[in-house]
Every structure is written in C-alpha cells, then in structure tokens.
C-alpha cells in the first residue's frame, strides 16, 4: 500500500472520529441528565389521564415520547397492550418498558439502540466490503445525520428501535445469500416479525416483498421463491403474534387477535387526513425543507433539524442505487453488487410507500440509514484501492 492511499485512509478515520465526537458524543454528554433522570410512573400516568387520549380536546396534551414511556411501563407491568396506544403493535413499547424498569430511566433505550445502529452498520459494511475503511466511511455518513442524534436525545421514540431490526435483517439476509444455510431463513423470519411489531406492520410487508423480488431475480424460479419466502413469512407471523402474549393471557383468542389487526389496518387506512394534501410530502421535505403538514393553517413548515446534508445524501443515494441496478445487468453477480441492488430495491419501495402516507421526519431513518450503506458500497465499487 503506497503512502498516498495510507494518508487518505488515515484522513477518513480522523474525520470520522471528529464528526462522531462533535455530532453525537458531545451532544449526548450535554444532555446526559436526560439519561439519568429517574422515571416517575405516577407522573406519567397523571399526564396520560389528563391528555388528549383520555379527554377529547384536552388542554394538557402529551407528546409521543411521554405516551410511549407510559405505555411501555404499563405493558411490562402486565397491562393488556390493546388498552393504550393500540394503533401500533406492542414490541417496541415492551422494549421501552424493559429498559425503563432495568435502568430506572425511560430514555436510555434510545441511547442503547442509537449506538447499536452504529455498530450494526459498521459490521454490515465491513462484511460486504471486507474493508474497515469503508465501514468507517459509513459511520462518517451516519454521524452527519442530524435526525440520528435528535432521536437519541429526544426520546424514547419507536423509529430508532425499528431501524435497528431493519439493519439486522439486512445483515442476516446477506449472510444467508452467501452461505445458503437454511436455518438462517428461520432467523430472518423472527427478525422480520420483530421489525413488524415495533410500529405499524406495512414496512415489514414491504421488506418481505423486496426480499421475494430479489430472490426471484436471482433464482428465476418461482418454486425457489416459495420455498424461501414461506418459512420467513410463517416465522414472522408467529413472532408477531407472540408479541401479543399478554393480550392472550387476558383471555382473548386468535379471532379477537385478528380483529385487532384488522382494526389497526382500518385505523391507518381510514384516518381523516386528506391524502391529496400529503402525497409525496417526503420529497419537498428532504430537498427543500418544506414539510407539508396535515394540521394547522400553514400549508408548509420548516423542520428545525433539517440540514443541507439531506438533499445531498438523498441525491447521492439515488445515483448510487441507479448505478447498482443498471451496472448489475452488465457485470457478473458479485456479492457487492447483489447487496447494492437489494438495498436499492428497498429504497425504491420505501420511497413509494413514504409518498403515500402522512410523513414525519423521523420516518427518514428507514430511508437514509440504508442510503448511507448504498453510497458507501458504490464508493468501494468505484475506488476499491482507497477504501
């Protein structure tokens, strides 16, 4: 390795360390009191009972963070999960509750999953590229994401937990693609079930569809598609169902469980939001910081955590995705290009999904975290000597 390449790699490491310190570590330290404050279940119960979820038109609304903290604690204490915040599945709130009981604080969970996401992305990129330098580049991109540290500090929120399971699914999927070990499809099913039970299950169905499409493209065999996807779907459904264990303990049966899932689906399908008002809302938010909201009188508002990095990384990600999808047709199926193509399919599918729902900035983690991986893979493919 010549001196020039060594200097570039050293510069990447230094830049990443500095960015991690100033954009993640120091902000966390400045807000450390939030992670040491003792959780008061009586206070949160009082807030909930005075909130909009109990009293219509309440003048004492509570935030999503407060709602999830209260719900998670009550779930772990044995409450039927359909009695509070039933429009989302329960696993994410159970995780929040378990961390709250263990650490006596409701925000440590986001700190844990924030750094766990960094670790998984490093492991994932290192596995795909066999390059720690490339994995470090991915961490550099992550550290520049203003939404990432925001979700660690202003917590707990389900999205930072949800994206963790997405990244773990990606990692196990790529290992399965290389090794073809059957038992890994069972692990994929369990992870997919967990991913679907953190928040609304639509992204999990999308992930299953993308996986099936990728298998079909590679194998060109419907029988192999069915053989692969069936155990993943069955294990995912069983895992998802088991997250409602307390629901069954309280005397409910499978029929009432399916009725609950139908209610969740109809809740999100038939809400009162004007769909024409929010269609493709994600694009002006990313590109121009023009967030078209579905409340109030202002058609657009600015999001205070937006940064110029959002449109830059988005456009870089789109270009990298097209590179993998087009180049794949002209080259042999290397592991790197298979991974890039698979992640590009996820990005395209999720972007379409994001255009069709009332979109919140924190949902961007499911879009941007895989984008950082795709961009890193494209850099590795184009400049293999340097990273």
Structural commentary:
This protein has 387 residues and is an all-alpha fold. It has 19 helices and 2 strands. It has helices spanning 3-30, 33-36, 41-49, 64-76, 91-103, 108-129, 132-143, 146-153, 159-179, 183-196, 202-219, 222-242, 245-249, 254-269, 275-278, 282-288, 309-327, 335-355, 365-382; strands spanning 291-292, 300-301. Strands 1-2 form a two-stranded antiparallel ribbon. The chain starts with a helix and ends in a 5-residue tail after the last helix. The relative contact order is 0.11.
What are the SSEs and their pairings?
Layout: H1 3-30, H2 33-36, H3 41-49, H4 64-76, H5 91-103, H6 108-129, H7 132-143, H8 146-153, H9 159-179, H10 183-196, H11 202-219, H12 222-242, H13 245-249, H14 254-269, H15 275-278, H16 282-288, E1 291-292, E2 300-301, H17 309-327, H18 335-355, H19 365-382
Antiparallel strand pairs: 1-2
Helix pairs in contact: 1-7, 1-8, 3-4, 4-5, 6-7, 6-8, 6-9, 6-19, 7-19, 9-10, 9-19, 10-11, 10-12, 11-12, 11-18, 17-18, 17-19, 18-19
Q: What general outline do the C-alpha atoms trace? A: globular
Find the count of extended strands (DSSP E, 2+ residues): 2
Q: How many helices?
A: 19
The low-confidence runs, each spanning 5 or more residues with pLDDT under 50, are none
Mean pLDDT across every amino acid position: 91
Main β sheet profile = 2 strands, antiparallel
What is the number of independent domains? 1
The level of helicity is over 70%
Q: Calculate the terminal CA-CA distance, rounded to whole Å.
A: 12 Å
